[in-house]
Amino acid sequence: MEIHLPSLPMMEILSYLDAYSLLQVAQVNKNWNALASSDVLWRKLCQKRWLYCDMVTLQLHGKKTWKQFFFYRTWQEHAKSRAKPEDFTYKEIPVEFEFRAYAYYISRHGLTRNGQGKSAVCMVTSTNRISTWDIHEGAMTWESPVQESYIELMTTLPEMHIAVTVDISSTIKLWDCHNRDALATKSIFSPCQILKAVFTKDGPIVLVGDTSGNLYIFRIPDLHLISRHNVFPYAIDELHCSPQNKWVLLIIRNPQVLTKVVYMSSLLRTSEFSDPVSTSLKFPLCQGVFWTPRREDRITLMARNAPPRPAKFGTFDMKLEEIGNKVTVQGHLVASFSLQDYKERAEWMGVSEKDTIVCSTGSSLLLFDMNGLRLQTFQYCPEQIFRLWVDPVHVIVTCNDGSLDIYAWEERSPLLRKCYRLQNRRYLLPSSFINNALCDDVSIIGVMISSPSFCYLMAYTLNS
């Protein structure tokens, strides 16, 4: 006998389910299948998983329903997990950049409308200019004029194909990476320490932290100053936004000052909030930070460790609270543990959407749940782990010999699955290393520093 429930209560119940559960519900009968396939439900899942879905229409992606789009994007996200080393094309792009090399994606997810892969990156060069490169072709596609001052920091906003730079004179410039002249220019008084461009529900912005502890919010594309607040007595060293950019976490490397979390809307809507709404997390000596992917209010911190003190992890849930007409924010510690049995220093960390914590020492990749239960260990010898890249789909381990190990998060378990190794193609001098490694849906890039001078961008692109 078929079960029929009123549509509105049923839709309310289904709105709490994930994609896998909705597919199971759809198997019950035709009525449940129609409800579980609703565009309202699948668009909500898409917006939770990918922030930019708030700002696009299905027509831009060539899909008719949000359910189709969800599975198309999920399939694309896992393209690298299904691949083999021989499915990648390797290129080296020699670029004249210095030791402090920057390379950021300027293309959104590396995909075009027809689903074909196309990745582009933006880099700072030693000649005081920035340039963009099609890494599939290994060719430069745009270059800015030579700047008067040395470019210290750069960030990109791939959704708008925009780059933002800050030079040694504290001049901020916004580039659309098509025209030779900057779209907008703004100067501040103190030297810049941190720079980030993000999309928020109020529009695209640039966040700038200076050496005096001030946090600036500028509007894109005209760099109009939205707000400026002094949040620390010292320089802001790190800035991390939550997955949907609801929160901003700020760190300074001073053992006497705690990490601070600020409610983003209080920085953007100055007519509603006279001061930033923030709280300090009681977790000193913070070394690593990672927001739980696709879960807006949960963050995990890793405390600095040096023998004999072990690394310590703490997971907090952020919560807005209204008392009368005043909005406050609280950070609630929900779990913590220490690496008591590991003598090696924990260097890098990340978190999966299932709250699995992954961290690396020089010789091991370790997985724990947020209460400290060890789930997996991957040993490295004779190689050493140099860096770690963690996103909602992959974990990429950079080894000291220049090789990359690709792991994927399991869909229905908290564990990692090792996929393959991308072997370094050339001999490295002892002083050589990958300065940073990152990926999009169809490529993996790394900036290889070969002291004393030669540097290049190593790029693995997934064949169509």
Automatic annotation (TrEMBL):
Residues 1-45 form the F-box domain. One of its GO terms (cellular component) is cytoplasm. Keywords: Ubl conjugation pathway. Pathway: Protein modification; protein ubiquitination. PROSITE patterns: FBOX. InterPro entries: F-box-like_dom_sf, F-box_dom, F-box_SCF_Substrate_Recog, WD40/YVTN_repeat-like_dom_sf, WD40_repeat_dom_sf. Pfam families: F-box-like. The keyword Glycoprotein does not apply. This is F-box and WD-40 domain protein 16.
